């Protein structure tokens, strides 16, 4: 078990390091922050002073080492726009993002899991086909297209809900539905597939042949085993709560972390972008670690395989 945990932690740290490295290199190759912030009309000496003040005049490998040294000391940098610590700007936006993502996550589970189970238990029926058609539509339609469609229908044509902002709880309805619908579609598809696979196992047929009531076969045997692959999807969804809100927050002008990321990327505010990407990476890695540990507790064979990997 100790080796299993050690391997998982080592992989998690490696993943975070790779994400941070990739973001660091891409951000510095995509444009000069000094020109973006100071403007191309700024005098050369002003731009040079800006680069020197923020360490941008050093070779990229020196900047890279300095950045990792700062992370090791708990320093995530300051915004090039207003000089505030990047972590403060991100923390200010987290409540707004959670106000969307947590209800959306609950909506995904309340819609997707029951729909997938019901579709599997009524395979081939009209309801099964309707669930799968809806799931495929929700899975394939981009979130920004769905968001614009909802705005067109419920905000523009019907006038029932506002199209953006954060003034009241009514402003959160359309973003939550947009975030929840796609995730519910994914959950419905995976839950249905997992249930169908379990229902086709010999022990299910054996339990039915022995006269065990079908309701008990489902609740005692099918559902617990079908829940294992579903945990993986839920873990991924928990890890992507912040990353998944980027597009939706931008469309609905919601002042969360996702919108902050878009603005920071446009302004080449390196410290803010790196801080958000580090937060996203840590969230996803942590959720995956929890899923791995749950798997290890539920199935000891996975612990032995993980130790051998």
Description:
This protein has a domain at 95-267: Orthogonal Bundle (MetI-like fold), CATH 1.10.3720. Helix content is 77%, strand content 0%. The protein contains 14 helices and no strands. It is found in: Cell membrane. Keywords: Cell membrane, Membrane, Transmembrane, Transmembrane helix, Transport. The chain crosses the membrane at residues 12-31, 98-121, 133-160, 172-190, 226-251, 271-295. It is a multi-pass membrane protein.
Task: Describe this structure in a few short sentences.
With 309 residues, the protein is an all-alpha fold. The protein is 77% helix and 0% strand. The chain has helices at residues 2-29, 33-38, 44-53, 60-72, 86-121, 126-140, 143-157, 173-199, 202-209, 214-239, 246-251, 257-266, 270-298, 300-308.
Features:
14 helices; mainly alpha; MetI-like fold; 309 residues; 0% strand; flat
Reported CATH architecture of the domain at 95-267: Orthogonal Bundle
Give a count of the beta strands, DSSP E runs of length 2 or more. Answer: 0
The rounded Rg comes to: 24 Å
**Tally of separate helices:** 14
Subcellular location: Cell membrane
Transmembrane segments: 12-31, 98-121, 133-160, 172-190, 226-251, 271-295
GO molecular function: dipeptide transmembrane transporter activity
Main location: membrane
């Amino acid at each position: 078990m100790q080796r299993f945990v050690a391997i998982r932690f080592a992989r998690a740290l490696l993943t975070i390091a790779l994400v941070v490295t990739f973001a660091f290199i891409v951000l510095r190759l995509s444009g000069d922050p000094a020109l973006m912030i100071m403007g191309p009309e700024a005098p050369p000496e002003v731009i040079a002073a800006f680069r020197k003040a923020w360490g941008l005049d050093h070779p990229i490998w020196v900047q890279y080492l300095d950045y990792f040294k700062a992370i090791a000391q708990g320093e995530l940098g300051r915004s090039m726009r207003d000089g505030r610590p990047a972590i403060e700007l991100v923390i200010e936006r987290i409540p707004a993002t959670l106000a969307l993502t947590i209800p959306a996550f609950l909506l995904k589970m309340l819609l997707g899991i029951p729909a997938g189970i019901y579709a599997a238990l009524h395979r081939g029926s009209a309801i099964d086909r309707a669930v799968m058609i809806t799931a495929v539509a929700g899975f394939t339609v981009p979130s920004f297209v769905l968001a614009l469609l909802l705005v067109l229908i419920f905000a523009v044509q019907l006038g029932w809900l506002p199209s953006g902002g954060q003034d009241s709880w009514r402003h959160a309805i359309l973003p939550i539905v947009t975030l929840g619908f796609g995730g519910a579609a994914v959950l419905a598809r995976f839950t249905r597939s997992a249930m169908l696979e379990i229902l086709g196992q010999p022990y299910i047929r054996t339990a039915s042949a022995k006269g065990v009531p079908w309701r008990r076969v489902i609740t005692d045997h099918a559902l617990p085993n079908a829940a294992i692959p579903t945990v993986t999807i839920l873990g991924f969804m928990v890890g992507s709560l912040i990353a998944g809100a980027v597009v939706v927050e931008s469309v609905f002008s919601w002042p969360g972390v996702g919108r902050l990321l878009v603005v920071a990327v446009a302004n080449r505010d390196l410290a803010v972008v790196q801080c958000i990407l580090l937060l996203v990476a840590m969230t996803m890695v942590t959720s995956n670690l929890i899923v791995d540990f749950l798997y290890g507790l539920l199935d000891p064979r996975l612990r032995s395989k993980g130790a051998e990997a």
